[in-house]
Amino acid sequence: MTSSLSRFKGLSVRQKILIIFLSLSLISLLITGLVAFVTISDIGNYAEQSNSALGKAAVTDSTIALQSVAESNLMKIAADEAEITNIVFVDTAIGIEILAAQAVSLQNNPPFLPIIPSFPRDTPPPDPFSGTVAIFAPGSTSTPQSDEYRTLAGMDDLLMAVNNADAELTGVYVATDSGIMRMYPWDDQNPPDYDPRVRDWFINAKTSSGYVWSGPYVDASGNGLIVTCSRAVPTKYGTWVIATDVTTDTINQNILGLTLDGSGYAVLVDSRGNVISRPGLSAGNTTWNEAFTTENLFDNPNPGLVETGRKMVAGKSGIDHVRVDNEEIYIAYAPVKSLNWSFALSMPASQIVAPVKTTESKIIESTRISGEHIDAQTTRILQIFVGLFIILLIVVILLSFLLARIITQPVELLRQGTVALGKGDLDFHLTIETGDEFEVLAHSFNTMAADLKKNIEDLRRTTAEKERYAKEMEIAKEIQDNFLPEFTPAIPGIELAATTLPAMEIGGDLYDFIAVQKERWGLAIADVSGKGVSAALFMALCSTIIRVSGGAEADPSVVLEHANQLIYADGRSSMFITIFYCVLDPVNRKFTYVNAGHNPPMLVRGDPPKVRTLEEGRCIALGVVPEVKITCAELVLEPDDLIVMYTDGVTEAFNPQDEEFGEERLMDYLQKHRNDPVQEIIDGLIDEVRRFCGNRPQSDDITLVIVRVI
Predict the structure, then answer these.
(1) pLDDT value, residue 107
(2) pLDDT at position 683, please?
(3) Exposure string (b/e) for 176-211, b if CB count within 10 Å is 16 or more?
(4) CA torsion 202→206→208→214, rounded to 10°?
(5) What burial class does residue 672 get, using C-beta atoms within 10 Å of its C-beta: 0-12 exposed, 13-18 middle, 19+ buried?
(6) 416-428: per-residue pLDDT in tens?
């Protein structure tokens, strides 16, 4: 008995099934012949019905799952592309603000010769990118010898720098009320009767307090459809308008060039529903001096598209199902926040459920073939039972081999699948259509392989996104560093040093040295609310505003009152800035200052040295309320006076025991080192704070500006 059992265990699954089936068949053949025939018929019908029901359920479940995943993916893509579009246009606006700051700076400085040359329109340079072109509009009263023309030449180097820094730009230029236009790169395509002063981008910029974007129009230089970002700058010569061009083709290729399996369609619209860019948008036969009529979502006869357009111009995000030409379309949309524009991506529903339709047809065909096969086998069994017992027995044996193979073949296919998956072939697909647990198991196997492949792709995509984010942070840091002074000015009778140490990759602190009329200098130290990219961008805006305000006015209270108006007017971010601003008069030894919510500086005076804080001239932080009234405080400087300006990253540094560095430690350090060179005082103080914090990370940005009277 044991020997027989051992031999049975040594058989394959197919052999075991064959033996058992033959034994049962021989025993029950004569007794249950008729019952077997009826049962086989019932099993065939049940198998056919099960196949059909399972196929319908699979189609229904797949359709629901695909629709849900498609909506989620479309919404994520639309939101990501809207954010990328926002970053591209914000970068262009930052370039405009840099040029505006340069234009303001030129008003208080004598004209200087630019590094790059300028060529007339009728004298082409060797390379258009090697110089600018100066154009006089019809009726212009200016000449190359005029003071405004020479001052305007000071913009040339920065025009080239801004154009080369942004690959999306077609050209950068500045036009004046007097009819002068300087453009980079050099171009002679503008018609002789071209006058920038009558163009919409010039007129709209003059009526706006910030930068504005135009709608699409035909470029006079032959670049096709373009949109223009422009900003007006008041000067002593009249208004200068700085502008940059981006072609709609560039927007289509770099921003809207998105397709999903060849069927996605992206569009960018403004706050009034006008189409800024879409695939296939062109100027047609419109010339540069003719108005270009752009499309508007609200002119579409489809009410579903119009309703989606209303949501887009309202700044909403979401996904809508709209029927267009008797076909359902998925439309995902998200706002481009900095412009109050909106980005939308559409995809036909038929493309989403196409795989399900293919699977449905395969299941129907498979069910039909299985039904025909079962009917044929049932008829054959009936014929065998009518015939001789010997013939019936032979047929049973043949069927036994066939059924054994049918039962074991899915197991073999599953084994092959596990081997392929183990070797890394995630595209291996099992096709088992038995209508039983093997088919369910094969479906689970295919789902597992697909999920594993998707997870790997998601991991790769996430890694790429992190690398892109790190690169963007690096670029943001470079931009932020460019807003800080490159060097400390040499002021007679004054020893000056400054530094900043961000807590993150980029920070929200700033300091600046601003040349003021009559050999006076404006010194600023400030701390914006928040941290990270938002704080850095807000810092860049505030730095530009303070530099422009300080360069035009010698009274610190007037400077901060004007800066507060500009910062509050751009207060969409709900952020604010604390600032200590002073005007240093080294000739008369006067130190005039105001403090907008900032840490009061410390004055070290006398021998032995005594430290006190400059508490006068205080007001609320900038950007909180629309109007502030500030009273200046004045300090008469004495030899060896040491004035230390700092941000709260110094006094609010914490050690592992949650103790604060505090003002007392700062005063004690300044008393001990008041005679050291100012740069050594800064370096030593930073080392002192680091020793105090130990292994605890820096919690806030650290910025120091130190002034010593010689």
Answers:
(1) 87
(2) 97
(3) bbbbbbbbbbbbeebeeebbbbebebbebbeeeeeb
(4) -10
(5) exposed
(6) 788 887 777 778 8
Least confident of 122-126, 129-133, 653-657: 122-126
Could you tell me the CA-to-CA distances from 185 to 23, 115, 169, 194, 394 in Å, in that order? 93, 14, 11, 17, 92
Amino acid at 710: I
User: Which pairing describes strands 590-596 and 618-619: parallel, antiparallel, or unpaired?
Assistant: parallel
CA dist., res. 211 & res. 230, Å (int): 5
Token readout for 36 is: 């077997």
Position 312 scores a pLDDT of 92
The pLDDT value given to residue 55: 61
List the domains of the chain with CATH numbers: 2-68+365-453 (no CATH), 89-246 (3.30.450.20), 252-351 (3.30.450.20), 484-709 (3.60.40.10)
Average pLDDT estimate for 213-228? 90
Residue 119, CA atoms < 13 Å, CB-side half-sphere: 17
Residues 51 and 369: their CA atoms lie apart, in Å, by 11
Task: Specify the amino acid at residue 696.
Answer: R
Q: Give the 3-state secondary structure of residue 676.
A: coil
Sorted by sequence, the CB contacts under 8 Å of residue 664 that are 6+ apart come out as none
The per-residue pLDDT of the chain, averaged, comes to 85
Q: What is the pLDDT of residues 295-311, one digit of tens each?
A: 898 989 999 999 999 99
- State whether residue 700 is helix, strand or coil: coil
Residue with the bigger pLDDT between 134 and 439: it is 134
* Closest C-alpha among 107, 96, 134 to residue 118: 134
86-113, pLDDT tens digit by residue? 888 888 999 999 999 999 999 888 777 8
Beta strand segments in 349-493, E: none
Residue whose token pair is 């009234």: 629
Q: Residue 242 in contact with residue 174, Cβ under 8 Å? A: yes
**Mutual angle of helices 13-28 and 389-422, in 10-degree steps:** 160
List, for residues 173-199, the tens digit of each pLDDT value: 999 999 999 999 999 888 989 999 999
* Token pair belonging to 360: 């449905």
Q: SS in 3 state form for 512-570?
A: EEEEECCCEEEEEEEEECCCHHHHHHHHHHHHHHHHHHHHHCCCHHHHHHHHHHHHHHC
CA-based radius of gyration for the chain: 39
Q: What are the φ/ψ torsions at residue 135 (nearest 5 degrees)?
A: -125, 135
Name which of 125, 70, 153 is nearest 331 in CA terms. Answer: 70
Q: For residue 537, what pLDDT is reported? A: 82
Give the C-alpha separation, 503 to 514, whole Å: 25
**Pairing mode of beta strands 327-336, 341-348:** antiparallel
Q: What is the pLDDT of residues 26-79, one digit of tens each?
A: 787 667 666 655 665 666 566 566 656 666 766 677 667 767 877 888 888 888
- Distance of alpha carbon 380 from alpha carbon 63, whole angstroms: 40
Q: In this structure, how many other beta carbons lie within 10 angstroms of the beta carbon of residue 621?
A: 21
Q: Helix, strand or coil for residue 404?
A: helix
